[in-house]
């Protein structure tokens, strides 16, 4: 697992916020013609703010309900709330190169013309009298299906439906250009007048997440244009994980989807023996079957290795990606 600078924070929402801000971006250069958005805070100022925020929330857990993880059911919406919190509350006027906070922060700006809704910008931000910046946020978890293939279509989501190439192409061809199309120009005129934001709108991407290599891969390839410092893990089919875990008998944490960023609320108490974790997996599968729910989007497991660090594993059904139906070998 990549250096986990965020794990020393005690409050789960602060850990998640630190992960969103500090973890390596999946892509650091251009996607199409669009660059990466970079934070305006110096690292020391950012970590000082996070440390103070952590102390405040440990003392008063309900202080900022807008980033309370328990209030969310979708990871993407939670990450949008975290970034929105950063934009509103971080000390943006305490840096050598930026002497003012954001005067404009518009979240989920719906782009419409006279006939229909064309799309939605995740964030539009600006400091006083400066141009608007459009930020598209994405948090993605993808698994490599072809070891020697560096193309985007070799990466598939844990749900066996999403593909990295399709997600990125939509971002490049539809979401990021929203503010630059002729048929959307009128939608931004009033906003630019209200916020005194002259000139063109710059569109940038902010993509975080984890990429998982096959556990037995000998020469795995990162996708084209990927950040070489990005956070990675491994993936296993269920039967391979059971064989590995029963032979090795590690301490593990089974993470629910909302815990995928930095683990459960109380990390110290979350570590369990592998037999307990396998029982928890079985309960999840049985619950899904009883309630006829959609297939589980993979199960993220943290495994403590012999040097007492955490290995990140995504466990998928035995016949994944052909099917995401639960394996009955458990």
What does this molecule look like?
30% of the residues lie in helices and 23% in strands. With 330 residues, it is an alpha/beta fold. Strands 1, 2, 3, 4, 5, 6, 7, 8, 9 and 10 form a ten-stranded mixed sheet that branches. Helix 1 crosses helix 3. The longest helix has 17 residues, at 43-59.
Brief rundown of the structure:
The chain is an alpha/beta fold.
DSSP summary, beta strand count: 10
Biggest beta-sheet profile: 10 strands, mixed
Q: Could you estimate the helical fraction of the residues in percent?
A: 25-40%
Element string (H = helix, E = strand)? HHHEEEEHHEEHEHEHEE
The residue ranges in which pLDDT falls below 50 over 5 or more consecutive positions are none
- Distance N to C terminus: 26 Å
Tell me the strand percentage band. 15-25%
**What is the SS-derived class?**
alpha/beta
Rg is 21 Å
Judging from the principal axes of the Cα atoms, what is the shape?
Answer: globular
Mean pLDDT over the full residue set: 89
Number of helices: 8
Write the layout of secondary structure elements.
Elements (H helix, E strand, L loop, with lengths): L11 H11 L20 H17 L15 H15 L12 E11 L4 E11 L5 E12 L10 E2 L7 H12 L9 H11 L6 E13 L17 E6 H11 L2 E5 L11 H4 L1 E2 H17 L8 E6 L5 E7 L14
Parallel strand pairs: 3-5, 5-6, 6-10
Antiparallel strand pairs: 1-2, 2-3, 3-4, 7-8, 7-9, 9-10
């Amino acid at each position: 697992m990549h250096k986990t600078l965020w794990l020393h924070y005690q409050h789960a929402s602060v850990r998640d916020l630190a992960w969103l801000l500090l973890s390596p971006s999946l892509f650091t250069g251009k996607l199409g013609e669009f660059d990466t958005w970079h934070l305006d805070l110096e690292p020391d100022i950012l970590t000082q703010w996070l440390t103070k925020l952590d102390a405040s929330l440990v003392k008063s857990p309900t202080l900022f309900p807008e980033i309370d993880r328990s209030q969310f059911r979708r990871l993407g919406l939670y990450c949008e709330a975290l970034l929105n919190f950063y934009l509103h509350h971080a000390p943006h006027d305490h840096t050598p190169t930026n002497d003012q906070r954001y005067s404009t922060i518009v979240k989920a700006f719906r782009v419409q013309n006279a006939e229909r809704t064309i799309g939605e910008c995740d964030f539009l931000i600006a400091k006083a009298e400066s141009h608007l910046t459009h930020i598209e946020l994405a948090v993605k978890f993808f698994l490599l299906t072809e070891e020697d293939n560096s193309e985007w279509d070799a990466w598939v989501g844990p749900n066996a439906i999403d593909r990295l190439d399709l997600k990125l192409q939509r971002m490049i061809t539809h979401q990021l250009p929203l503010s630059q199309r002729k048929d959307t120009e009128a939608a931004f005129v009033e906003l630019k007048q209200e916020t005194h934001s002259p000139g063109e709108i710059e569109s940038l991407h902010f993509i975080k997440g984890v990429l998982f290599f096959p556990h037995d891969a000998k020469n795995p390839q990162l996708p084209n244009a990927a950040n070489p410092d990005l956070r990675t893990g491994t993936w296993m089919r269920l039967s391979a994980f059971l064989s590995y875990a029963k032979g090795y008998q590690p301490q593990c944490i089974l993470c629910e989807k909302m815990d995928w960023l930095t683990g459960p609320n109380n990390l110290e108490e979350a570590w369990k023996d592998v037999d307990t974790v396998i029982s928890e997996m079985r309960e999840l599968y049985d619950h899904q079957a009883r309630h006829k729910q959609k297939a589980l989007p993979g199960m993220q497991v943290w495994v403590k290795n012999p040097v007492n660090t955490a290995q990140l594993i995504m466990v998928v059904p035995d016949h994944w990606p052909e099917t995401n139906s639960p394996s009955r070998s458990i």
